[in-house]
Amino acid sequence: MRRPLTRRALGRATLARQLLLERAGLTTIDAVHHLVGLQAQVPRDPYLALWSRLAAFDPGATGRLVESRALVRIVVMRATIHLLTADDCLVLRPLCQPVLDAELRRHRDHAPHLRDVDLAPVLACAAALLAAEPRPPAALGRALEAEFPELDGAAMAYAARNLLALVQVPPRGVWRRRGQVTVTTAESWLGRPLATAPSIEDVVERYLAAFGPARPADLATWSRLTGFREVLDGMGSRLRTLHDDEGRELFDVPDAPLPDPDVPAPVRFLPEYDNALLSHADRTRYTPDDIAALATDDPVHGTALVDGSIAATWSTVTEDERVTMTVRHLRRLAPSECDDLVAEGARALRFLEPDATALDVRLVAVGS
Q: What is the value of pTM for the model shown?
């Protein structure tokens, strides 16, 4: 019988599956598929997330994958924007519909305007308008209000966001380009229908391969869906069961890596929103007991992992053509850890700001 997994062992296992123990030789498409998407409400975030995970990452080529529709930006897990492969867009979006239904029902501003409204004709009109021409949500709302003047335009546009599968089209989400949110239907953008009977069991296996070992509550945190205990119990030999050092049952896919807890974990810089840190109900596999509170009045653009756990936050400031990254460490660091943190920060900053004439990395304690 396998020994219980300590926090450190769990952290190493998940880091390996998240491609954060060693940069992987995968293509961008294969990496995004393996990771079951990347959180992307900040358009630049997926690029840093992939740079920290892949041995040979070309952000320009990745931007072209967004333009060519091989990668798609769409609201899915946790009702947030993710960067997905086109195939995953068609599978994950219908699976996440209950999450978006619930969000629409409880929306403070829009739900009251939609109560007792038959949305079928509104959604049909919205789908036709967007298939003909991608539009910003506000423009969609105005067009819908012209057709349904008795209803609130912003509320109808938000209903379309949640009840239709809407992708954000380029240039938004393309490396080093800017653009307002402009949407169209996934079906018209990709020329294919959404999956009619997507397998939740297949998605559970993929989650565990990228984030496991995990408990039902972790899957719920990752997706905001419910009912995973029953799903996991019904998967039988497709899964193995493990335990953590508190005796809690963990589920996993057979033969997924479980590295030695003492395997080195290099410094990694992660974006403001990274699924690796947002997809478990119990995040102690990444957070040591002695860490300082993450809450701070300072701007935070992301976090940094040292020895496999959150050890610092980082932010950047641009003055003229000089970019300064401030790395605020949250616990005491050994001199070698400080050196590694500054060195990797400099590499990350060079990636993020290729046109800057001067780059600086400052390492300070939280509150300094």
A: 0.95
